[in-house]
Amino acid sequence: MPKSKNQSTTINQIQPRDDIEPPKLFKVIYLNDNVTTMDFVIQTLMDIFGHDFNSSMLLTEKIDKDGSAVVAVLPFELAEHKGVEVTVQARANGFPLQIKIEPED
Q1: Alpha-carbon torsion angle 94, 39, 59, 34, nearest 10
Q2: SS3 72
Q3: 79: helix, coil or strand?
Q4: Which range of residues forms the domain containing residue 67?
Q5: Structurally, how many domains does the chain consist of?
């Protein structure tokens, strides 16, 4: 298509950068308590973290036995968001469930 007198050409020169590091990952950890039900923990693992029933059950048993368990490893913003989401649901249901977020080693 021929250019008219008023049209200009823009050339974009995009240079790929290979010095960008991927985002650091953080562990989302459920802490055991004597009040929060196993059913609630299983349900949040399925609803918020996308675990299936079997992996949710295994994680819940690990939390109960060991006192805590890593339930996901995610970029910080997502880990924080999901941790807050679980905490809000827990409080709305009268549970003291606590979530901890730590940098992955």
Answers
A1: 50
A2: strand
A3: helix
A4: 25-103
A5: 1
Tell me the C-alpha distance between 43 and 67, whole Å.
18
Domain contains 8: no
The answer to whether position 63 is within a domain reads yes
| DSSP per-residue letters across 36-50 | S-HHHHHHHHHHHH-
20 part of a folded domain: no
> What is the Cα 75 distance to its own chain's centre?
7
Count of other CB atoms within 10 angstroms of residue 49: 18
Among 33, 37, 43, 36, smallest CA distance to 71 is for 43
List, for residues 23-60, the tens digit of each pLDDT value.
Answer: 899 999 999 999 999 999 999 999 999 999 999 999 99
CB 71 within 8 A of CB 4: no
Residue 46, both tokens: 């399925």
**What pTM did the predictor assign?**
0.80
